[in-house]
Structures are given as structure tokens and as C-alpha cells.
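Notes from the pairing session

We agreed to fold both candidates in a single pass and log them together. This is the raw record for the first candidate, unedited. Please don't reformat it; downstream parsing expects exactly this layout.

Candidate A
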Amino acid sequence: MQISRHISLKIYTNGSIRAPLTLHHVKRAMFSTCLVKLTKRKFDHTNNIDTSRLEFTKRNELIVHDLNRFYPSMSDLQSRNPDMTAESISDQDHDNYKQITVKKFLDTFEKNPQRLNGEDDYKSFLQLNGRIKNIRYSGKKIAFIDLFDSRYNVKIQVILNLNKLKQETSEERFQEVVQLLKKGDYIKAFGIPGFSESRSHTLSLKGTKLPVLLSAAQYPLPSQLKDELKARKNRVLDYQVNGVSSLLLRSNIIRLLRSFLDKQEFIEVETPILSSKSNGANARPFITKSGSLNENLELRIAPELWLKRLIISGLDRVYEIGKVFRNEGVDSTHNPEFTLLEFYERYLSMTDLIEKSEDLFKHILVNLELKKSEYHFSPAFDNLYRTLEQANWKFRRIEFLPTLSQELNIDFSLIDLNDAEKLLESLPAHSRKELFENVPPGELSSQQILNKLCSFYLESRYCDTIHPTIIFHHPRIISPLAKAHPSNQQITKRFEMFINGKEYINAYEEENCPQLQEKNFQLQQFSKETIKNKENDELISPDEGFINAMKSGMPPVGGFGLGVDRLCMLLMNKGRIEDVLPFGCVDDVKTQ
């Protein structure tokens, strides 16, 4: 079929009629139109023109001239008409609308279809607060607003139909209010529960009054935020775009820790963060200065000695979940500020502590398993749950020195572990070369040698598994606050628990003899003074105040410590600690 080169087209422009155009003219016109569109696209791209931002910019000009209108007081709204005017309404009219959350609305009507039975409920007048997720228009008289609840990640459709409002509202007023709303605004909506008139028959809040603007957004949020670096540097934006599920899960984990201890009648306490001397762990403290006292103070590195003072004071079981501060570097599992759980209970043995640790993990995992659909746990969580369930919720166990003796083919029971030189000489040549080749003689303490041996031969070889594994009976020289083994004074009633090579729990029977505790402090101090290096500088210092408190009578005590942030990393399947901290690590916090 041939196409005629002449096409009779009558084009009306300003009322005039043009002569017929040829196909050549049409092609040229089409080409010119496409060229204009392409040029405009290119211009928009290179100049980053965001039409949504332009819309916000125009409204922002109105906002600065009427701040109270766009950011009203909730108290003031109770005496104002909900169409954002200053006209008063009667208390009776206002009270007719029952306040309900988006989640409660869905729980009431979506999960219980018989409540509405597919019909609008003209007797239930409700008011909902929420954030606008999206706005759609159908002509000039109908608007559809998705009202969002970020905590539960749920939304409800609000239908505004000018013809079905209870208020007498002009079309101009309807347009003025509705067109002023933007995505990201917080509003209060009024209406009845019902269904859309479309084929989908969507559960909705069918508006009976114009919504109230509670707070106006001044710029649009991006539709997505996948760049991890940008997300870490702006957590407020990250949570708004990607949701707050990580915050909610962390909160739930901490709540489960508390509930486990509260059910056993532990007393939650708060101990000092600032003191003249921090202690209770091997770490370097942060030092600040008090203006009123005109002296230096240190931020606590652990609450241990304060909590044990409370046990001495008369409490039988105490715990604290709080921040500790250690002046160290940042890496995938360390942040200078982190959250620690410590609890102490009278009359517990090391075996009791192990069993309590197993019970704690069972309590957390079983309760989180019930919320799998809510939090969408990773396969790692399932693996941990199944592994412990199959093991009857028991941890694997290896003993420190016997396992180390087996690995190195030497008998550590015949070696004075307090003598660093003899300890180093007793090691096989291949071990000294692999672990300590570049360290000059006399520059390593016993603590450093034993910790390195434990890390290399025990933690990496026996604890790199999803099945929680404990190393128990640590040498006394690296456990200055732990009770010595009754039949072997070189080791203690202490254990650490590891999962996939990372430490989660450190627990032991506490030393309660003042003289032996003082001796342990002195051994640590001697090591600090004779071998000067960074790690030795972080060893525990003597605490005379604590020794004096012990002399008034300290009962047998079992103590337990758990890194809360690492536990969250494990259960949330996060590879870096900043991913479970609300605002990231200290280097992320600086930029926010």
C-alpha cells in the first residue's frame, strides 16, 4: 500500500485554517517536537531541576510568613476547627471523634472483617494522626491520601470527597486545603471507617471533615537511599526512607534482657559514669575536667566494681544496662561508646552462671522466634536457633589450659604463668616465631602472651562456629577479679562465650577475699610498671576504696557481662557495629 505524499490536514491556530500539509512538513514538525523534548530533558538533568523541590520551595515561602499555621500546638488544635481556620467548634462536636492509631484502625477493621461486613460504618467517627506517604487526586473534588505509621510500617487510605464532607465547604476551600498538603506532612484526619467505591473495595477512612495540618515538611525525601555511606552519615534521613525496624528490634532485644532478669527479681540500678578513677576492665579511660570541682574525672569503662559495692551493701541481685566508654579505636566490632549488660547475684557458682547464660539465650531466641514475621530475621538467626534447640540449649565447652597444652604439646601446669620470660621460653619455636617473632625479649607481659595464645589456638580453632562455645578456667594472671580455682591457684572460675569467633559473654565467680583481691591488683600493677607498652597500660589499677568495702564483708557472688551491641549484631545479622547503633559509630556521629 502506498501512502500519499499529500495529507489533507486542517490545523486550527487562533481560529484560522491552514492549507493542507505534505508528509514532509509533518515529519519536520515531529522531529522538531522530539528535539525540544530531548533538549528539555538534557537541560533538566544537567541542571538537576527537581519539580517536587520547586513545589516545596513555593510552599516554604508561605510557611515563613505563617509559622503557627503550619506548626500548630496540639493544645491549641483542641479549640480550633479542623479545617485549619481559627473558627472555634464546640467541645461536643470535637469529642464525637474517637482518637485511634493507624495500626489500631487496621487491627480493628482489617483483621476483623465482620466488624464492617463490607459496609461503611456511619456511626463510628474517628480521628487519626499520621504522616502522608502519598497523595493522589481524582478531579478537583476527590483526593486519596495514604496515611503512614512508621513504627509499625503500616498505612491506611484516607478518602476526601468534597460532596461527602459533613462540613459545608466550598470547592475553593477544599482545593486550598488539599492542594497545600505534601508528601511527608503530618496531619490529623477525620472520618468514618468504610470502603472505596472502586473495584478493589479498599478499607479506608472516609473523610467527614478537612484534615488538620500538624507539621509541614520543607523538602521532599528521596524515594530510596541505598548508599550505605550516605545512610550512615545521615541516620535521620536513613530511617525516614528505609524504616526504623532496626531500632525496634534493638529495643525488643534489650526489653527481653530486662524481662529475663526482672522475672528473677533482679534489681535494676544505675551506677556512676563520672568518677575520680574508672576501673573494672582492661581499658584506657576518657578523661574530662569538672569546672566546679576543678579536677579531672574519668568516664567509666565498666560498672563492675560499683555493682559489687551494691551487693556488699545488702542487695542480693542487681543488674545494669548502660553505656561504658573506652578510649580505643573503631573497627567492625568496637566503638569507644557501647552498651553493656552486667548482673551480679549472691551464691552463684561458675556452673550456675553457665546455666543462667544458656537460659538467657533461650529466653531471647524463643521470644524473638515468635516475632519472625514482624522482623524478617536472616538465615543466621534460624541457624543459631536450630543449633541450640538441637543441643537442648546447651553451650559447647573447652577448658583453657588443657586445650592449649594439647595444641602446643606442652604441660602448662608445670609453668609459672606469672613469669613472662619463662612462659615465652616454654613455647615451641614455631609458635614463638609465628606469634612473637618481632617482639624484643622482655617487652611482653604474661597477660599479653596468654591472651595471644588464647586468640590464636582456642578462639579461632574451637569457637568459630554458630554453636555458642565457652572457654573456661582462665589463668588467674589474666583474670584479676575472678575467684581462684580451689584446687589450682593458677586458674580461676571464669568463662567466656564465643559465637563465630566473637566474644559475647564474660562471667566468673567474683573474688570476695580482700587480701587476695589486693594481691591480684598488685600483680597487675607490677606488670604495668615493669613492662611499658600500650596494652599493659590498660591493665586494671588498684582500687583501695573497693578493697575497704570488701573488708566489711562480701558474700560469694557470681558476675556476668554481655556486650549488648554485639548481641544485636548477631541477632540482626549485621557485620559492623555501627549498623546496630542508632546513630552509628563515633566517626558517624561527628557528621550528624
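Candidate B (folded immediately after A)
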Amino acid sequence: MTSSNLNKNGSHDNLTNSMQDKTRNRPKPLPYNTRQALGVSHLPTPSPTPKSPCFVHSNLNQSFSLSEIINNCDDKLTEYSNLAETAVSVRELSKKLGQAQIQSGMQTVMIVTKPGNLRLVNLTRELAMYLITTPRFGKDHGVTVYVDKALKDVKRFNFQGMLEETPFAKDYLKFWTKELCAERPEIFNFVLTLGGDGTVLYTSWLFQKVVPPVLPFHLGSLGFLTNFDIQNYEHHLTNAMEKGIRVNLRMRFTCTVYRRIIDPDNIIKARRCGETDLPLLITQPAESFEVLNDLVVDRGAGPYMSLLELFGDDQHLTTVQADGLVIATPTGSTAYSVSAGGSLVHPAIPALLITPICPHTLSFRPMLLPDSMELRICVPYNSRSTAWVSFDGRGRVELKQGDHIKVTPSKFPFPTVCHESQSKDWFSSISRCLRWNERERQKSFVVVEEDNSEDEYNEDDDTSTKVSESSEQESLEYSEVKLQNTRGDHNLGSSSNNINVNKNNKQLHRNDHAFACLGKDGSDSSSNNSGGEEEWKVVTRKQNKKNIKKKYLDRK
């Protein structure tokens, strides 16, 4: 084969460039001395990316590769019209996914019970018996139920009594463990939680990879994530199994902790702050967590504030000097983040929330970043103290100088069953739990108008009402007193009297409008704090100018 054949159509050059790119992008192994210091002969290889279970991918041709198309978008120039149309299509697809009705045979149901609550043990037993004995899907029995293995020896659960009560319990009542959820999450088709938001977070902690749909029953304190009433569990479960469900795919974070490795063979001289002979820091992944609510980095028990370096897409964003930092998901926006001054974010918005905890600068405000950004929170080597990090309130670990955490959106969302829809459930939760924007309704005004006609007091329409005679008499007496003060003790002529009469009429006409608040029944409700709805009413007052002038002259 000649060189001309090799270079035909550029195939040989493309192959060479591709091999060079793969070699260039391949991570370099650690030095031999570093591996010896760690006590390992080789570093563990990362696990392969699991195959996407997306139904869109499954309906496409096997030769179709979505990753290749995405890579081509990065390498090739794209017209704006094509880019805009693609963005609109992706938005519409996301909207359809949120409204999609899932119809599947739920053959295996897992029940997660709040630990330490003896009252819920009896409820777990009742719910398990209902699922096992109620015929489903054309069979004479129900579905397979998994309950916590810790309940097997509890007297209230009475496992032996369940075996004697129904023969189906022997084959269709089983027990789950943490190891089973981690190793074989695919055997569960549906999850029921009995508790509050903490029980839902514990379910997310159990399933660090693929999560089955979760139907949470409200048996806790607040219940942002629990929208189903346990009193109607038969109705909810029947609708879910027969009519299908709608799920809210809540975004989770993949948080990877990187530990520093000191390489004694590589010593660099730092010029920062006059320090010298600083060791070269190399980090490697130590552990990873799937987070549903938030990641909290704080100062721990140390007296000093935290000193953290925040990076986004390998670019330095800012230096955090505060008591800590909260990186929250949209689901976790109603948790620690909102207590620290963060915003409420709809769970359908793909975003990362950054909320500082008591920052040392007033200009450090909470912000929202796109989920495409990769965050890194680092503890610099010159920090006065270490930092501590917790994941959904669990797995609290210490970050020493040189350690950092990488935060990226997870490939495994947390699906919760919608009671009505995503938006209705969310607004109902914040209204029920946070009393969002609740206050007494502002009372309206009643406008009292004065008409300078010759007629007596008449009603203008059905919405008008008369002004009482006492109020009219009071206004006349007030005007007369004011006229007397204006006139004084001097004896004026008839012309002056006429001028005063005209002034009197003008002063009467100045009070053209009066305002009052009336309830629906027409009574004065200005002192009523019931907060009920008020009506606008227009009160028209028509005065007889001749009668007023005559009364004034007679009294004179």
C-alpha cells in the first residue's frame, strides 16, 4: 500500500489525528513514588457509564448515536436557525415529558417506613397486607411487597401472624436491605414512603443509581415532598396501578470528593505571600454521593470562618469567606437554602443554587447557575482551618487543605409521583408549608360624592346609599362655625355678608368626596379585621343650595 493510498480522502490523516487526540486526552498515571506511598500498585479504573434507559433512545435506530451528533455540534459550525429550532424542540420535549402518563405493571412494591416510629409499624403491616391480598392484573393475588428487614422481628409487625393470616404472605412478602437497594435497584418497580421529607431523602440515599418512581405519603411535620394523604391510600394505589402515573423528575447532584496526594519528588517554590517549598498537590477521587436536596460546606467546630475557592467550568469564580456555602438543587431550594436567604425555585427548572451562609461581604448574594456548569469547591492550602461537608444531612466528612469537591448534575434523577401536576403540587406545598404570600385581604374604599344639583337627597343607583341626616346637620354646623370665625366681631355690610355667603357655599363644595369602608351588608366595617371581601360603593349626596342659604340668613 503506497502513501497515496493511505492519504486518499484524508482517511489516514483522520485516523492519525484521532489517535493523537485520544492519547492527548488520556489522563496521565501517577508517579511510581506516589503509588508506593499510597500502598497500591495501580489506581482503580472508573466504572463505565451505564446505558441510558431513555425511551427516546430505545425507539431510535441502533446505528444512531446521539453522542456523535452532540460532538459534531461542538466541532462544526451550525446555522442560527437550526440551533434555535433545536432548542425549541428540546424545550417542547421536556414539557411533554413532564406531562407524560406512565402506564406500567407494578409487580414489585417497596415500602420505606420512617424508623423509630412505632405507630407506623402497624400502618406498614396494614398496607403490606392490602397490597398482597388485593387481586391485581388478572391474578388472584396482589403484588410482591418488600419491607424493611428491621421490621421482621418487631412484635407489632407480627410476621408470623401474617404468614398464618394469608398463604400469599409466604411467597409475596419479602424484606429489603441497604445492600439489596445498592446492588439490585432494578427489581423494584414502585416505592411507597411512610413518613415526611426525611424519609424521602433517605430513599434517595438508598438508591445511589437508578431510582424507581416514589409515591410519598404525608406522615411527617411539614411535607414539601409528600402530597398524598394516607387516609385514602386505597384510592391512590388503585389509580396508580390501573390508570397510570405522572412523575416529576427531580434533579440530583453527583458530588465527588477529591483527596490530596503529596508528591515528595515534586517540590515547587511559591511566590505567594512569601512562602516557599510548598508541595505539589495532586488529587484523586475518594468517594461519591447522589444528593437530592443540597450540599453544605461549613466551618464545622472551628472558630474561624470558612475560606473556600469556588470554580465553575475550571474558571475561578470567587473566594468564599463565610460560615459556609450551600449548593442546592431546585428541590432543595425550600430547605437550608431558603433559610439562608436563597430563592424559591420550581423543581422543573434545571439550575444550581449557590447560597452563602453569613458571608463576610454584603455583596455576596445568592445566585442561580445553569446545570451545564461543573462546580468545584476547594479548600486552599493557606486556609486557617479545615472545612466539613454534608450531603443531604448525611455522610458528613472533613475537607482538609488541598481537598475539593466536584458537583455535577446526576444522570439518575429522582422521580416522584405527581398528585395533580408539577406546578399545582409545588405551589400547594409552599402555600401549605411556608404560608407563602398569605395575609389579610386589603379593605376597599367607599367613595362619597357630592352633587351640586337643586334636588333633594336621592339614590343614584342600586349601589348608592343615603347619607344620614345627622351627618348632614354636622356638616352644616361645621360650616356655620367656620363662617362666624371668618366674619369675626366686625360689623360688615350687606356686600360683605354676600361675600361670606359665597365663601360658605364654596367651602361646602370643597368637601366633595368622603371615603368610608362598608361591608357587603352595607354596615361600616372599618374596624372589622375579618379580612373578608369588600365591595366598592359610591355614595352620592345632593344638596339644596337654596335651603342652605335660607337657613343661614334666618339664623343671622
